[in-house]
Design a protein that fits this description.
307 residues; Rossmann fold; 2 domains; seven-stranded mixed sheet; 17 strands; elongated
C-alpha cells in the first residue's frame, strides 16, 4: 500500500555530524532506524529532495538510488554520498546509469554526487526488482539484499546451532535477522513462545514471512535497549552484530548481553555466538552467575550463560 503522506525532503541513513547539511524535517528512510518510512511505500514523483548515505552493496545501493529517483519529482535534487573505500567511487557511474547528469566532488574521505531527477530515468524497474525481497533458493526462505548474510548461511549461526540443545519454555531471539535461528528453535515442540527482534526492518519483514507460527512475535527494535513486556524468559539466543555503520563497535554486543540478562528469569540461559576476537567474557561474567564455553572453532566461540 502506498503511503499518501506528503513526503517533502527525504534522508536515507545517518550522516556523521558536519559531513553534510540535512534539510530540516527530512523524513528518514533507512531500514536500520526503527520507525522510519519505507521508501517502497511512497508514491511516484512526490518528494522535493533526497539525501542518501549510500550503502556499499551494489544491489542494495542501486535499489535505494532507483527508489529515490522513482519518488522524486522531475527536476528535484538528489545528493548521494559514501566513503571512497565503501562504494563512494562507484556512485557517479551508478547514477549515470539511471540517466542522471552528475556533479561529483570529494571531501572528508567521501565522494559526493549531486544530480536532479531526469524527466525519464532509465533502468529503475530492473534495479528495484534486483534489490527487492525474494525467496532465496539456497536458504529456502525470504530474504533481501542488504540484510545480514542475505543469500548464504552465516557460519557463526551454524556454529551456534551445532552447539545448542533443543530449547524449551519461553524465549527470545535477539537480532533474529530473517529467522534462520528461530526456525531451528521452533522445531522443538517444548518451545511455548518466541519473541524475535531485529533493528533491520527488511529482516523483520522477511522473518514475518518465514516464521509462520502462532508461537512467534517479530518486532522491529534497537536491542541495545530492553524490549517492553519481556521478562522471566527461560532462554535467549543471539548472534549479536559488532558493526555499526560499517565500523566495528564492540559495545553493540555488550548491549545485547545486558538486554538478555534483563529478560531472563533466575536460572535462565543465554546462548551466544561471537567472533573469537570479541571480548564478551567480562560482560557475560558480570551479568550472569555462570558462563561456560560450549564450542570453539572456525573463528567463533559459543557460550552458555546462566543467570
Amino acid at each position: 500500500m502506498l503511503d499518501k503522506r506528503a513526503t517533502g525532503a527525504l534522508i536515507y541513513g545517518a550522516p556523521a555530524p558536519g559531513l553534510i547539511e540535512v534539510p530540516a524535517g527530512a523524513v528518514q528512510l533507512s531500514p536500520l532506524v526503527p520507525g522510519s518510512t519505507d521508501v517502497a511505500g511512497l508514491p511516484d514523483a512526490s518528494a522535493d529532495s533526497v539525501t542518501i548515505l549510500a550503502p556499499p552493496g551494489t544491489l542494495e545501493r542501486d535499489f535505494v538510488l532507483a527508489q529515490a529517483l522513482r519518488v522524486l519529482k522531475p527536476g528535484a535534487p538528489l545528493v548521494a554520498f559514501a566513503p571512497k573505500d565503501k562504494g563512494g567511487s562507484r556512485l557517479k557511474k551508478a547514477l549515470e546509469g539511471f540517466g542522471c547528469t552528475v556533479i561529483e566532488d570529494a571531501r572528508k574521505h567521501h565522494r559526493f554526487c549531486s544530480a536532479t531527477r531526469p524527466a525519464k530515468p532509465v533502468g529503475l524497474d530492473a534495479a528495484i526488482a534486483a534489490g527487492a525481497p525474494r525467496i532465496v533458493e539456497s536458504l529456502g526462505v525470504w530474504s533481501q539484499p542488504g540484510v545480514f548474510s542475505w543469500d548464504r548461511p552465516d557460519p557463526g549461526s551454524l556454529k551456534l546451532l551445532e552447539a545448542m540443545p533443543a530449547l524449551k519454555g519461553r524465549g527470545a531471539d535477539l537480532g533474529c535477522g530473517i529467522g534462520v535461528l528461530a526456525l531451528r528453535i521452533l522445531a522443538s515442540p517444548a518451545v511455548m513462545a518466541l519473541a524475535c527482534a531485529d533493528i533491520d526492518r527488511r529482516a523483520v519483514d522477511c522473518a514475518r514471512h518465514n516464521l509462520d507460527d502462532p508461537r512467534v512475535v517479530v518486532d522491529w527494535a534497537d536491542l541495545r535497549r530492553p524490549l517492553d513486556g519481556l521478562a522471566d524468559l527461560d532462554f535467549v539466543v543471539m548472534n549479536p552484530p559488532f558493526h555499526d555503520g560499517g565500523a566495528e563497535d564492540r559495545a553493540l554486543g555488550q548491549g545485547f548481553v545486558a538486554t538478555a540478562a534483563a529478560m531472563l528469569r533466575k536460572g535462565g540461559a543465554c546462548w551466544l555466538v561471537a567472533n573469537r576476537h570479541l571480548p564478551y567474557e567480562a560482560g557475560l561474567k558480570a551479568a550472569f552467575a555462570t558462563v561456560t564455553l560450549r564450542a570453539e572453532g572456525g573463528g567463533y566461540k559459543v557460550y552458555e550463560a546462566r543467570k
